[in-house]
Design goal:
heterodimer, A: mainly alpha, Rna Polymerase Sigma Factor, Chain: A, 2 domains, B: mainly alpha
Chain lengths: 190, 87
């Protein structure tokens, strides 16, 4: 079991690493990349639901992180900052796509470790729900995916989007309202 | 106190959220990227680096070789066509 002194030393080392990254040290950047690439990739995958796109956006995110090293505040931690940059990279990608290109297959992504969808729902209903979700404007879709599908804490979603918790709630509410209207047009009543 | 309409609306939102959760699989653990992304990131960083940074990344012996060739060309200009012929 790690002693208090060991934990203190590890924290000090991590803090030093963040300071080094902040001052432009390439080795510190590579260490941070190796430590956080999985978390960043996972976060992006939850938003874009496409492993190939998530890979590209992970690279884009760390590219932006590298460029912005001087603006990084080591006192505020790396992960929330990286999540915010990743979320904006994903949003930029979504905005560059036409809404109808977000396919149901992307939303119903088949990656290792997703939970099984409810077998009581028919494939057709799942497909329609995924399509309706894909038709939401990017800002609302991201909020709905993170807060509703992934059930991430609202504070985490708010930090990632750079908005308040109240604004997250509002986006989720608006997303659900649009989704309901869309599904009702397709004859699906929740 | 919530009025009846608000209560119904909240209930409706909850049931819709539940339906969405049942339909769309959640990604529970952070999945590992299919391969190491560091080489691709490095290539991206190198491609986007300013010219001065790219010049700094050229190994010193390449600079020494280029300098040696320049000195040779200036000292023996007549040898340059022959050198080019043999390249």
């Amino acid at each position: 079991m790690a002693s208090g002194a060991q934990i203190g030393a590890a924290q000090l080392e991590a803090r030093e690493e963040l300071e080094q990254f902040h001052s432009g040290n390439e080795a510190a950047f590579e260490t941070l990349f190796r430590r956080h690439q999985r978390a960043v990739y996972g976060w992006i995958l939850r938003i874009v639901r496409d492993p190939g796109v998530a890979e590209d956006l992970t690279i884009e995110t760390f590219f932006r992180i590298h460029r912005a090293h001087a603006r990084f505040d080591p006192a505020r931690g790396f992960e929330p900052w990286a999540r915010r940059i990743a979320t904006h990279a994903a949003l930029d990608w979504m905005r560059a796509q036409r809404p109808e290109t977000a396919t149901a297959d992307e939303i119903l992504v088949t990656v290792p470790a997703p939970r099984e969808a409810d077998p009581a729902l028919t494939a057709e209903v799942r497909h329609r729900i995924a399509l309706a979700l894909g038709r939401l404007p990017p800002k609302l879709r991201v909020a709905a995916l993170l807060a509703v599908v992934e059930e991430r804490p609202q504070k985490e979603v708010a930090d990632a989007l750079g908005i308040t918790i109240a604004a997250v709630k509002l986006r989720v509410f608006r997303a659900m309202r649009r989704l309901r209207t869309d599904l009702e047009h397709q004859g699906i009543r929740p | 106190m919530k009025n009846k309409g608000t209560g119904n609306r909240e209930q409706g939102t909850e049931s819709l959220e539940m339906l969405v959760r049942r339909a769309i699989p959640r990604i529970d653990n952070d999945p590992e990227p299919p391969h190491d992304l560091w080489p691709a990131l490095q290539a991206r960083l190198n491609a986007q680096a300013p010219l001065s940074a790219r010049l700094r990344s050229v190994p010193w012996f390449d600079w020494a070789l280029a300098a040696g060739l320049a000195v040779f060309a200036l000292t023996f200009p007549a040898a340059v066509p022959m050198l080019l012929y043999y390249l």
